[in-house]
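Exercise 7. Given the encoded structure of a 345-residue chain, write a plausible sequence.
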């Protein structure tokens, strides 16, 4: 249930109301937006007398929320959530490009890629240290050493790092990681989500291969229910009957997620397609659909990549894509590419 308050609500009245609601056994979520102050109620609201609440002079209206996700719901929190990751804003008009290889392969490689993507305008660096591979015989990632390599690249370039966690047990290794990614295969690893909810780390949550938007938002809710509201959603393609692409990019998910939720929404055109050549048009489609950013795989030498070479852009292709991204963003004045200024580092 959501209470929308009148603009002139006094602090004292607000305090009394919150206290009363808490005494009814409800969790109270106060959101003071630019235009509106709202109170979200979580818990059993069946015994609450809506008419009584509507009658209070500080309450403008009362809405029952039927969606099972509350914290992630835009009705609960009408303004866009804006994350701050090492001074870089994500969401609410701040467009970000996360770029880097599928897997971190060596310190030299990740530094080289980090420098080149930064030069082209990327705002964050990605790279897998723990890799969820379909085959147990495929490269599994350099694990904790991979995280150290990413930290080296961060030291060299200042780019914040994004890397995937696969199990609760390795969480202590992610202390210095700026954004923890939960991959598609772990979107419903509820114990992991709960544990991440207890941290205050920004979490990049990718949509599962065969999950609905409702399930996706419920997974975000798992993290948020623990008190961690730093969640970024990432559409990365879903399984369909189509085999021409690795997955099918669900472009409709972008405007719908933006409508349902206040969380930033990114698109990963690399895993969505599996084909480097179509990563640029899908990236531009993501911008047109309203995404708050993209995550693109970039490798210094895609043909020799230890994972996902076929979908990785080389640095020159990425640079070209960034030119188009910048041009495209001039059409959509609601979002601006975040700029990393050297002097800030
Ligand atoms: C990745 O981003 O490295 C990855 C494994 O993606 P996904 O979980 O979307 O398959
Ligand atoms: Mn990959």
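Solution.
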């Amino acid at each position: 249930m959501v209470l929308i308050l009148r603009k002139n609500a006094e602090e004292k009245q607000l305090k009394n109301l919150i206290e009363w609601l808490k005494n009814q056994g409800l969790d109270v979520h106060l959101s003071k937006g630019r235009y509106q102050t709202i109170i979200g109620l979580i818990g059993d609201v069946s015994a609450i007398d809506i008419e009584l609440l509507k009658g209070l002079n500080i309450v403008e209206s009362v809405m029952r929320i039927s969606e099972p996700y509350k914290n992630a719901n835009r009705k609960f929190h009408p303004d866009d959530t804006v994350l701050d990751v090492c001074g870089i804003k994500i969401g609410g008009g701040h467009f970000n490009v996360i770029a880097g290889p599928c897997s971190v392969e060596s310190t030299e490689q990740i530094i080289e890629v980090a420098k080149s993507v930064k030069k082209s305008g990327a705002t964050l660096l990605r790279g897998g240290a723990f890799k969820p591979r379909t085959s147990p015989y495929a490269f599994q990632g350099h694990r904790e050493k991979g995280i150290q390599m990413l930290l080296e690249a961060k030291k060299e370039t200042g780019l914040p790092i994004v890397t995937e966690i696969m199990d609760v047990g390795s969480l202590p290794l992610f202390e210095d990681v700026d954004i923890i990614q939960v991959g598609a295969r772990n979107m419903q690893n509820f114990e992991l989500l709960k544990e991440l909810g207890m941290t205050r780390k920004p979490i990049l949550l990718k949509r599962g291969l065969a999950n609905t938007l409702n399930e996706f938002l419920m997974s975000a809710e798992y993290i948020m229910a623990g008190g961690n509201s730093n969640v970024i959603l990432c559409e990365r393609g879903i399984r369909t009957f189509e085999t021409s692409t690795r997955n099918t990019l669900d472009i409709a998910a972008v405007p719908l997620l933006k409508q349902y939720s206040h969380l930033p929404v990114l698109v990963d055109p690399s895993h969505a397609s599996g084909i480097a050549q179509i990563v640029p048009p899908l990236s531009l489609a993501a911008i047109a659909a309203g995404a708050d950013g993209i995550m693109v795989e970039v490798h210094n030498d895609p043909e020799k990549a230890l994972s996902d070479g076929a979908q990785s852009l080389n640095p020159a292709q990425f640079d070209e894509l960034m030119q188009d991204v910048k041009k495209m963003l001039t059409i959509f004045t609601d979002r601006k590419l975040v700029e990393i200024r050297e002097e800030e580092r």
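Remark. The first helix runs from residue 11 to 23. Students should compare their own answers with the one above.
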